[in-house]
Amino acid sequence: MLHIECPWCGQRDQTEFSYGGEAHIVRPTDPDALSDAQWADYLFMRTNPRGRHREQWCHTSGCRRWFNVVRDTVSYEILAVYRVGETPPDTDAAAD
Amino acid sequence: MQSRRLPNGGRIERDRPLRFTFNGRRCEGYAGDTLASALLANGVGVLARSFKYHRPRGIVGSGAEEPNALLQLGRDGYTLPNQRATQVDLYDGLVAASVNCWPGPQFDVGAVTSAFAKLLPAGFYYKTFMWPQRFWGTYERYIRRAAGLGHCPREPDPDIYEKINVHCDVLVIGAGPAGIAAALAAGKSGARVILVDEQSEFGGSLLYREAEIGARSGAEWLRESVAALAEMAEVTLLPRTTAFGYYSHNWLALVERVTDHLSGGAAGQPRQRLWRVRARQVVLATGAIERPLVFCNNDRPGVMLASAVSTYVKRYAVRPGTRAVVFTNNDTAYQTALDLQQAGVAVVAVVDPRDNPRSPLVSAVRRQQGIEVIDGAVVHDVFGRMHVSGVKVAGFDARAATLSGASRRIDCDLLAVSGGWNPTVHLHAQSGARALFDEQRGCFLPGQSVQAERSAGGCNGEFGLKSSLDAGAAAGADAARATGFKPGRKQTYKAPVAAQAEARLLWRVPAQTRVSRAPKQFVDLQNDTSAADLELAVREGFHSIEHVKRYTALGFGTDQGKLGNVNGMAIVAAARGDNPGRPGTTTFRPAYTPVTFGAIAGRELGEFFAPVRKTAMHPWHEARGARFEDVGQWKRPWFYPQAGEDMHQAVNRECLAARNGVAIMDASTLGKIDVRGPDAAAFLDRIYTNSWSALAVGRCRYGLMLGEDGMVMDDGVSARLAEDRFHMTTTTGGAAHVLGWMERWLQTEWPQLRLHLTSVTDQWATIGVVGPKSRDVLRKVCSDIDLDAARFPFMSFREGSVAGVRARVFRISFSGELGFEINVAANYGQGVWEAVMAAGVEFGITPYGTETMHVLRAEKGFIIVGQDTDGSVTPVDLGMDWIVSKRKDFLGRRSLARADCVREGRKQFVGLLTDPPDKVLPEGTQLVDDANAATPVPMIGHVTSSYYSACLQHSIALALVKGGAKRMGETVQAPLADGHVVSATIVDPVFYDREGARHNV
Amino acid sequence: MSEIELRTPLVAVPGLPYRGRDIEIVEVASQGHVNLRGAARNAVFKDAVQATAGVSLPLAANTASGTQPPCALWLGPDEWLLRLPGEAQAATCVDALDAALAGEFFAASDISSAQTVLRLSGAHARRVLSKGCTLDLHPGVFGAGRCAQTNMAQATVILLPLADAAGGIEVVVRRSFADYLARWLLDASR
User: Are B548 and B572 in contact, with CB atoms under 8 Å apart?
Assistant: First the structure.
């Protein structure tokens, strides 16, 4: 059971959160300019790294804020937590 | 009666005798006994039959490692299968029985398999029952009946179980010397400490080994230390509690046996409690489990672990035999020889494969009268079938790993064995760390920690008392320090340190003949896995330890290989020509010992399985005899049967009332969201497919939401309360999801938009008043709203009061009739509902439930998201192009232009009229063009909604059919599960009042 | 405000109020609840709340301005729960804020009917709550002055520790879940 640090409420049990998948997927500003393949890439394609992963979580049962987490998908270690709009902190291999 | 009970000593309470039965035999024990110690005291030797060969088996260990003594406890709903007698605290009236044997363990019909043991090697079942494949189901049934352990109760469990969540600074697992020292060190610093131990008493090895700590005896130190811990306000002591799982982020699961040890339980107390612990630091002080030795017939009743023998003698004052041989490759079992001697058991020999071991303890044994120390020798076989009657001892050539010289027989009825110690690294490994093989000590030790945990004492290879205490104290202090407490000066203990002779690793004792021909040398007693099975597996190409495990069942039992695994891995290594540690361990998985389903379920069953949400009018519905339907977590009235009515009749009556008179329904469960801010309309433009910025204040509009993939996600009617404020409604089941979805876009993608979303679902009770006479009813309870059709037009709303309560009234319709939805503060919901009912009496107002709501909307062809749609349906598929704006972007719009969304042959929303007209198709029925076509018959769609329409006097259905919009008037076939085929004609999904005249009155 | 009878969410739960050994459970009904949204740095907004409701909005996460109404509980960086003595005050407060803050970016929603309060007191109160809640409820960690939104037995709740010596806690729960949660708490208190 993960213990996740909400940037506002602090450490809370995983059961209070919902998972939002990969972070930093930006909605295209002009969807019509995209080919079907480009749109499908935005819509469906996600990285699935073994190791550090930037992902979105929401403190659903708490303050209802969405935020970002850098989590190691092997050890489940949470390396960093940062708010929406903030630059991802440097966690060494985060750019892998 | 207790023929094997020693006249004095032990930690049992002799003034509290307890009665129990075993296989119907009346027995007696004392408080403080385990079932195992009491059975031994009563002279019970054979209490089980083995899993595969049905060989007689007796007690081997004294704790969690016990592979044989798995008994069925209790009767009826209270029965528990496969309980380790060594971990069951005795209580008055306990009923225990053997499993896996019939009629009993002394004489077992199933033992006939033993005669064919040579024909049942590893993989026997895989190899034999492969062919013909379709018979496997039959084979399996018989194989399972022949094997298997205890039986499950057939009745519901009458006991209560509960869960509790706790946090602590330091969780100490294991309350032997190291664990107690750790808890003391951490507790003194003021840290929040939890100390758990699976046994009924704290103390670990101090419970059966005499010791000296400082100036006190071990027993005195134990008593004082536990008393000191109990005094500390922030320390929680949990005996009879097993830490069985170590999960991510230092989250551990413990199961406390609260009343298992009490006769008949305790009123109001749960039987077991599941502790879910978030620990900042963990100290593992789980000790070590003695390793057995592998030799021929080493499974005979009377062969026991030396430490277990000492435990029975010293802690429980039980003599497990009368004439004993000790077989050990290390010093610790020499103490067992002394313990037995002291208890009056004749110890005739200590057999030791080492050549002339020298240490104070060995010397002490050599000095004893009557004990022959036979060094450089091994026990290689056992006499006796139902019980040990003697052992075969021969010289041991360590270099050649063979027997040497002649073999001699020594008579005995107890063989105490020790092959060294296996640190209990299970929790360390579960935490994600890897245990590493220590060549020198010949055991697996904790490796690098990956979570905030540290090991101390026996589980870390620190087997001496002083080293355990000191390591425990240091670990406790370090853990406290790591959580910000100040544990003070480092503490060391004064305890004698005895020099020990080095152990000689011995993974398998050589046999007189080839291993495959020799009597069985058991490695895993619970699964009857022998050394020969392991070697066969390696010969057949199973080299990975995980594969060997699955081929031979090594370590698969309820004991998870606590005794056998390390020997097994070393034997596999030898067969591969590797070092013993090379194959590594199999994965350690929770649970350390089996956990009852009751504890895992806790109170989450029956009425507490999932939350039950109720509306403000729920008591009224109940009083009116409504039948309820689960919609999401909500209880919604389904229909209101009157005396003598079935559902069909009730629904027909309710439908006709709504169409011809007036009817009332509780719509409070609809999701409601207060959308407020200068950008509210702009935001809704992006969320809904249609346009909202142009909606006038005071008006309502139906909206459809899509996922970004273009598929219909939710719908509802929303109203513009003010320029900057909307009252949005969602489906009942979609409320939480829609709010979360909108918050996500707002927070992560469009933070510049200025609006707030607030859930007001629970604030408003919503009363739908429907039917041609609904306005007449409303007029009687609503004095400050002009209800005139022209001044309060369809799809608009008014604020005012209903029955004197502030209200928002919407003139909308999900039934196709003239209708109003009254929203009032839920605290007044039932009062207003009653007022409307009273006002409607003269018009025959009829309450209706969800079933009638469904029929009414289906007659109008209105969709229910999640019933008529399934996540693969676009608005175009539904024929709802009219609601899709071409002039703005919204979520999901681009996807509607994807090639797959515009192709021919997509399933489209249509109506179906059956022939015969009274045949109601089951929802979900597949549709085909020709039911007699060759299989597989091409499926062209399915029925999504289907009802009998009393108003139309015809069965109606809604369906998704490939290319359906262009197939109006064509016939499709619906093959039913009962073999009948029903024909249906494809029609427009709006069956009733296509012009929409009825709501416009 | 009308002849219509007010019915609290828990009016029909058998066994309430409950007085057991070291645990009492009562419904604190009919209080005023206002969900408030706005920018913490907007002085106009904060001053209007102070003037209207008589409370100063707490800015630190998971803190409350007091334990008894009128008080404000932090729910999010731009969200608070105003607790007022009665539901009439909530309606008045919302109307007054709407008037005072016309043109400002904020939202005030009267949710007095949307939730109710269960007060648990006695030495066992926190232990009972721990059966359904993963939050650390140790009085040294979660004492008066704090508040938290969390899950309780699968329902979403707001917890507010009281200032009494026995370490009582109030549980704010949504109306539709209240009946379920009250039954669950009664069962857990057995």
Answer: yes
Asked if C84 and C149 sit in the same domain, the reply is no
Q: Which of C70, C92, C110 is the last residue of a domain?
A: C110
Instruction: Answer whether B709 sits within 8 Å of A43, measured CB to CB.
Output: yes
Report the largest interatomic distance among the alpha carbons of chain A, rounded to a whole angstrom.
Answer: 43
Q: Do the domain assignments include residue C171?
A: yes
pLDDT band at B97 (very low <50, low <70, confident <90, very high): very high
Say yes or no for a CB contact (<8 Å) between C149 and A62: yes
Among residues B409, B452, B447, which one has the least CA distance to residue B429? B447
Residue span of the structural domain in which C71 resides: 32-110
CA distance, residue B575 to nearest chain A CA (Å): 33
Let me know if residue A82 belongs to a domain: yes
B784, B821: one domain = yes
- The pLDDT tens digits of the residues spanning B626-676 come to 999 999 999 999 999 999 999 999 999 999 999 999 999 999 999 999 999
Task: Give the pLDDT band (50/70/90) at residue B112.
Answer: low
Residue B263 pLDDT: 80
Distance between C4 CA and the closest CA of chain A, angstroms: 34
B676 touches chain C (CB under 8 A): yes
φ and ψ at residue B190, rounded to 5 degrees:
95, 0
Domain containing B813 equals 764-844
Chain mean pLDDT for chain A: 93
Which residue has tokens 């007693």? B525
DSSP B761: T
Q: Does C9 map to a domain?
A: no
Q: Do B831 and C5 touch (CB under 8 A)?
A: yes
Alpha-helical (H) ranges within C25-152 are 43-53, 87-100, 125-130
Helix B218-231 with B177-188: angle, nearest 10 deg? 30
Judgement on whether residues B22 and B104 belong to the same structural domain of the protein = yes
In this prediction, residues B211-222 reach a mean pLDDT of 96
Which residues 90-119 on chain C approach chain B with CB closer than 8 angstroms?
A: 91, 105-107, 109-115
- CATH number for the domain spanning B909: value is 2.40.30.110
CA dihedral A81, A86, A90, A91 (to 10 degrees): 20
Co-location of B297 and B415 in the same domain: yes
Contact B444, B585 (CB under 8 A): yes
Burial class (CB in 10 A: 0-12, 13-18, 19+), B927: buried
Distance from C-alpha of B795 to C-alpha of B773, rounded to nearest angstrom? 18
How many domains, in total, are found in chain C?
2
Number of domains in chain B: 7
Instruction: Answer yes or no: do B15 and B146 share one domain.
Output: yes
Query: Which residue of B747, B893, B898, B902 to mutate against A (max A Cβ within 10 Å)?
Result: B747
- Please indicate, yes or no, if residue A32 is contained in any of the structural domains: no
A chain contacts of residue B708, beta-carbon cutoff 8 Å: 27, 43
| pLDDT tens digits, B836-867 | 999 999 999 999 999 999 999 999 999 999 99
Of C110, C125, C148, the domain-final residue:
C110
The candidate with the shortest Cα–Cα distance to B254, out of B241, B264, B270, B267, is B241
CATH number for the domain including A74? Answer: 3.30.2270.10
Domain boundary among B819, B844, B869: B844
Over 80: is that where the pLDDT of B131 sits? no
Residue B728 maps to a domain:
yes
> Which subunits have 3 or more CB–CB pairs within 8 Å of chain C?
A, B
Number of domains within chain A: 1
Q: Structural domain of residue A48, as residue ranges?
A: 3-25+39-95
Count of CB atoms situated within 10 Å of the CB of B939: 12
Q: Does B604 touch chain A (CB under 8 A)?
A: no
Nearest to B488 by CA among B112, B188, B802, B218: B188
Is pLDDT of B326 > 60? yes
Same domain, B20 and B148: yes
How high is the pLDDT of residue A96?
Answer: 42
